[in-house]
Each structure stands twice: as structure tokens, then as C-alpha cells.
Amino acid sequence: MASKREQPGNLQSARMSVRLLDATLRDGGLVNDFRFTDDFAKALYTANLASGVDYMEFGYKASRSLFPAEKFGKWKFCSESDIRAVVGDNDTDMKISVMSDVGRVNLESEVVPKSDSAIDMYRVACYVRQVPSAIEMIEYCHKLGYETSCNLMAISKNQESDLKQALDEVGRSPVDVIYIVDSFGALYPEEIRRICDMYLEVGDKYGKEIGIHAHNNQQLAFANTIDSCAKGVNYLDATVSGMGRGAGNCYLEAMLGFLKNPKYKIKPMMKFVREQMPSVIKSGAKWGYDVPYLLTGLYNMHPSSAIEFIKSNRTDYENFIDELLDID
Amino acid sequence: MASKREQPGNLQSARMSVRLLDATLRDGGLVNDFRFTDDFAKALYTANLASGVDYMEFGYKASRSLFPAEKFGKWKFCSESDIRAVVGDNDTDMKISVMSDVGRVNLESEVVPKSDSAIDMYRVACYVRQVPSAIEMIEYCHKLGYETSCNLMAISKNQESDLKQALDEVGRSPVDVIYIVDSFGALYPEEIRRICDMYLEVGDKYGKEIGIHAHNNQQLAFANTIDSCAKGVNYLDATVSGMGRGAGNCYLEAMLGFLKNPKYKIKPMMKFVREQMPSVIKSGAKWGYDVPYLLTGLYNMHPSSAIEFIKSNRTDYENFIDELLDID
User: Fold this and answer.
1) Whether B219 and A251 lie within 8 Å, measured CB to CB
2) How far apart are CA B198 and CA B192, in angstroms?
3) Does the interface ipTM go beyond 0.90?
4) Which residues on chain A are in Cβ contact (under 8 Å) with B315?
5) Rounded Cα–Cα distance for residues A166 and A161 (Å)
6) Which of A147, A186, B83, B296 is deepest in the core (most CB within 10 A)?
7) Could you tell me whether strands B121-126 and B95-101 are parallel, antiparallel, or unpaired per DSSP bridges?
8) Is it the case that residue A89 has pLDDT exceeding 80?
9) Do residues A307 and A279 lie in contact, with contact meaning Cβ atoms separated by under 8 Å?
10) What CA–CA distance (Å, rounded) separates B266 from B275?
11) Is A274–B315 a contact, with Cβ atoms under 8 angstroms apart?
12) What are phi and psi of B33, to 5 degrees?
């Protein structure tokens, strides 16, 4: 069956349905415990606006009762007042998103109706086995007036039939966007293109948009993102300089250069990179490609062991391979 | 017309026709003027052998009369005695290659018959306009008994019709392998797959193998290499840790992890990375992804201006964009 989204464009097209999402404060926050300066957050908001970014994700919506406030910066919690301090009324075309992990936020006490909120979209992150809980959250946020997405994590570990069933359940929910998430940076472009077909079929069936969130363990985050885009995936995640856990993410700068819609501009983001990123790196935040991340990506595993390996200043990569293959 | 090379395998296949070429001493030599220690070269030879690498490129075959010997390490010239000092009789399955640029080597005085040489393959690098000269060199080396390749550089700058004519000329020569070279790291996977089709058609017509040499300006070197491999391109270039000019190359470690033929082993290369690469980096050799390389890749330009920009410790990326777009 020919999908309505087949051949949605070529490299020369400006596809108006594309939505670029900057997840720097959120995924980048995982490597500095969300301790960004206010100046950084404000400059990023300004840069995203000037660059034509469609969504800016401010961080997680997590409950302070579950996470000690002194251990994290403000973007772990994304209070309305903290967001308002940056965006004011956000009288712009750029939308604001936050992410919530299943079970890590008390929706009833934390989420206000959309009309009282600076937030436009709740992105619900879950594993396949948590889909029923995620759908509850999605329904709740949808009822309060928010856009929602379901970000199914670590799908490279799932059985295809389980994933298909989960996608069908999510498809029948009121969710707006279903995300392909390559949490471990394990998927090759050939696989990503196949997975896009699977998701787009569900999207077409239920009228949902599809998104992609890629990790850079094997230096494939940008390739996987633009190949997904070519397939018809419209919601594209990226972070400034790829800032994110472990090997990091797809580079926002690269996406701004790649996308052909004239509204996307690379220069304001270059200014931001020049003015703001050196101090983040100087403050000790570390991310980006390194051998141990290649290995966890290659063997389809969570990057936590690679993060630990690097923190311990180990370089005995051969032993690390043995450990990885032993514990799987 | 269905090509005999369509669907040559999938991600699970071990394709026996694949040849992995390590170009560390050659492309990596461009960032340290070929000043590798003897220990490094020997350890690399050992690591390549143990990893199942098919070809090891030792460097350039350039004439000492054209390049001052004191300005370069030995692998700019690749004398037989220097190669022999590393490989002895090279009584192994791994082949030895060198690269020669059109006009930079005096073949008559520098190239001995294959029976007297440690070298198995001459790779002739040229621009499309130099193809007639390259073919002369290829014919000369072929007559002396060597395998040959033609590495057509900077094809992202060529008109497609010129490139097609050049490919046809090269196809009619005795060359064994025709290489796709993305010198500027400008090509996206979607384009690379299209270019693969063009080269493979010529390869099928004339009975030539096709190769790929990718650069990492947009972090697409690995993606472009494995996508080419999936298309039926058999000769795959890579370097240890991507060492190479500017943003560098496709990572050999990533290729060893990706390829499914059990003869390829990642562990010996991990040992080499651990033992040898820190001292190369410490000696001042610099390569790898950086914003200016992203920009020259994006705008399809030679990385020389980016190398200069970085050397000058400049970070005024916005001005750099203006300069790039001005001089094109």
C-alpha cells in the first residue's frame, strides 16, 4: 500500500511540515544536573527564536517530592514561574515543551490547565512496557489542553511484535506525535529507515505525526535524523553542539544547515555557540563521541556503563568489551 | 535494468567481497606531516593484521625532488626500504597500498616492478579534469604488475555530466577500483546512495570494483560508508579514530564493529587505540569535528579555510560564513 507520506520531498525541498525541536536544556541537562545559568537559558531562547526553531524543550517536569531540589538545577522541575522568567508571555511562533518520565511526576498537583501555562507540549517518555501508564498521562495532559507526544525509549531492545502492539495502543490514544527514540545510539540508518516505515504506517492509520530522537554513539545521530526526515518523519530533535547524555545527540547546528525551509537560520545559532558553549564546557559538562560510547552503541546497551568507565579514567577497552558482553 | 549488485546483502550478512582499507598513515599523515614514530607504524601494522583489515595504506608515493624531505616524515615518500622495515616480506593476506597524486610523483624513477616491491596497490588521486593523466599513471602501474585504483576527488563540485564522462574514461582503463571520494564531507547519505548507483553502473559495465572514501565534516563519514556498503560498494576506507585532514575520516573502529564477516575483530584495534593514539594526540596532531568543518562541508568547500580559521584561534563563526559564501 502506498503511504500518503512516501517520497515527501527531496534534498532540495523545503518541507513546511517539518518541526525542529531543541532539547538542549533537557537532554543536555542530564550531563550538568540541569545547572544552566539564567543567562544561558535566555540566550538559548533568543537564539532558537532567531534560528526558526519550532519547539524549545525547557527540561523535565519532575516532582520535587521525588527528587531532592538541592541536587538539581531548576530545569529538572520546569516550574511555570521559571519558564515565565525566560519566555514572558512567549508571544512568538515557537512552542515550549517539557518532558515527563512515567512515574516521575505527580500530574494532579504539577500540571495546570493549558490556559494558565507557558507550556505547549508535554512529551511523555516511557519504555514499551509502560505504555498503558504513558497513555494515562497523555490523556490527562490532552484533557488539560496540551499537545502531547509519546517518546518510546530504547526500542532497539524490544521485540518487533511488542513494539508494534505498543505503537497500536499509542496510536489509539489522543497523542499528537509518536517518537522513534534510539536511546542507545544502536540503530544503523538502514534499520532506522525500516523503523520509520513501521511508525509512519501507524501514523497514517491514526492520523499522528512521527518524530525522531537520535543518539550519537556511533556518530549516526545526524544521519539517522535526516534519513528519517526524508522518509516523512516531521518532528526532529536536536541539541546545541549535540549536548546530551553520553555521546550526545543530533547537532542542532547541522540541522539548521541541512533544512531547506528559509525560516531556518544557522547564523544566530553560531553566535550562541560562540558566546555560550565554552562556559558550559568549562563548567565541567562532558559529552560527545568516545570509544566506550561506540561500544555500548554497537552492543545495543545503555550508556551508563560507558559513562562510569570514562569517569573512572579507564582506557582498558578490551576488558570493557568483555564486561559488556558478559552482563548482557 | 537490474544490476547484479542490487541488494548485495543486509545488516546481518557477512559479505565476503568487502575490503576494508586502513588509510591512517596516509590521510592521518596530512595532520602531522607524516611524522609517525616507527613504533606507531609497526603497532598499526600488527593491529591491522590482527583486526582482519584487508589493505593498509602506508602513505604517499611522492617524489623527493618535488617535496623537501626535511619537511616531512618518511610516509610522504614510502620508500621500499621504509615499508620493508615494517612489513618484512609481508607474508600475510593483508595488502599494502600507497597513494600518488597526479603530477606529484616521477613514476619512471620511483616505481619498481611489482615483483621487487612490498607494495600491492597504487591508488591514483586526481580531480575530474586530471583523469587523462591519472589513466596514464594507472596504465603504467598496471603494466608493472600492481593493482590500481582511481580516486576521483572533490566530486561534490563537479557537474554530473562531466563526472559521468570521467567515469566512463576511467572504466575503459585497466584500473581495478574506482573510488567515490567526498573530499569536502559535503554529501548527504541520500546523495551518496544516488552516486553509488552511478558508480556501480559503470563498475558493472566495465567489471570494476567501487570504493568509498568519506570525510566527517558533517559527521556523516560512517553513515555514508555503511550506506555505500549496503549498496554494493566493496572497498571501504577508514582511519583509526578518524584521523585525517580537517574533520577527519570514517572511524576504523566503527567499521570493525559494523562489518559482520567474523574475520574482522575490534579488540586488537581497541588495544592499538589505547596504546598508541594518546601519544599522537599529545604530539599536537589535531583533527575531528568542529564548527568550521561543519560549515565548509555544508557549503561544499575545501576544508583549508576552516583549518586556517581554527589555527588562528578564531571563533567568529558568523563572519566565517560570510567569508565562505563570498569567495565561492
Assistant:
1) yes
2) 10
3) yes
4) 274
5) 9
6) B296
7) parallel
8) yes
9) no
10) 14
11) yes
12) 50, 35
